[in-house]
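Work Package 3 (structural annotation) set out to generate three-dimensional models for the target panel prioritized at the project kickoff. During this period the team completed the workflow that converts sequence records into discrete structure tokens, so that structures can be stored uniformly alongside our sequence database. As a representative example, we reproduce one entry of 519 residues exactly as it appears in the project archive.
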Amino acid sequence: MDIAIIIIYLGAMLLFGWWGKSRTKNSADFLVAGRRLGPGLYTGTMAAVVLGGASTVGGVGLGYKYGISGMWLVVSIAVGLFLLSILFASRIQKLKVYTVAQMLKLRYGVNATSASGIVMMAYTLMLSVTSTIAYATIFNVLFGTDRTISVIIGGGIVMLYSSIGGMWSITLTDMVQFVLKTIGVFFLLLPFAWFNAGGYEGIVERLGTAAFDLGAIGVDTIITFFVIYTFGMLIGQDIWQRVFTARSPKVAKWGGTAAAVYCLLYGVAGAVIGMSAAAFLPGIEASDDVYAAITQQILPVGLSGIVLAAAVAAMMSTASGALIATATVARADVMPLLKRLVGRSRDEAAAASNPEHDVRSNRLYVVVLGVVVIIVAALLNDVVAALTVAYDILVGGLLVAILGGFVWKRATGAGALWSMAVGTIVTLGTMVVVGDVLANEPIYFGLGASLLVYVVVSLLTPRTPASVLKIWNDRLASRDDEGTTTETPAAPAGAEAGEQAVAAAPAAPAAPAAPTATE
């Protein structure tokens, strides 16, 4: 019965992916769902993409080991999403760009900021790889297949439904996954685990009051969670690309806030499930095995299949979101950079790699990179170190330049470039000196160096050209509360820097008002 439920779920993902194709009429639909998502779809899909295997299986495992304090990993994600939604989401949505690197070009008028796409692509690619490996481990148990076959099965399904209809397919499948996670975690696993543990009294009797100690996981660990995951949420392409799908700044702000509240509750629920399991199912050595173990131990056949499907859904939603983000960055930022390096002009490179060019080319990028994800996931046994390096460079190298562009008008393109370069070098260099890529020091030193250089170089270099700032400010000042696309005023004739910014971040084609279904 459990196997049948998982198979039905996987088949449903393909069907919803095909349904999404019917909504995909142009590249804006494929990459950002036509920028037409209403509050319901936006909230569900945002919650789905940020709550992956680490939040679900990992969150329960942390609860098993540290009690209620195991919630801090997911709480740090929720805080990051809340800050993004309240402080930046509405402004990000107004920019009408496709990638983080395009935002940097638009703000600073410096085409070289496209190099940031390489770091972003590495981050999203490894995020997709780790998620693929995670749900393949569940297939190993359920289907009795070896690791490579499990990776091919899961990775192939994600690649197919992501490439069929792009972001519309991913949005529809994410909503199914959101519902599954809600049912599996809140309505099945949480009450069953709590009951089997004997409630609050039973947990205290068996584990002591230490199970409810919020700081049991350690202050250093909590700080690290917030530095890596909260900051990472603020600037990750996979998260921004969901912000781009909102039909208005209001939806981006409040839909994201609602998703953050859901994530907070999800983190608490996972920790409670884990600590409840520790009360009645002690002795599990590997914390990542706790989720599956308690599912099989306390739930009847059928219900356990739903809960296992919820775990797979959590991992697949992250994998698909990261995959389309990788494809978008590869086409919009990395390919133009590579073509310029081999001698093609900036205009030729941008035209050949324009993400608005056609749906077929965008679909090809998703397929090719989906195959790359499958191959890497099949070859690597442990990518935690690689993902940590990507996260550290993302935050240590890019955070200051990205967020600084929103909050400091005096910041310049030179300051942004030097900040990204120095932050990345210091982060990597500290890893070498410390001798541990999982240490906390690299990201702290990288962030500090990046901020210092950003401020100093910006103050020592000429201000950003007025033509560039005019385009930036015009977009941020636009009002688009009803889902219509606001045309961006063109730069004055001959304003080279402004023209570069417009070329780097074209406004999306006007999209019709969202149909009732997007509510």
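The first helix runs from residue 2 to 23.
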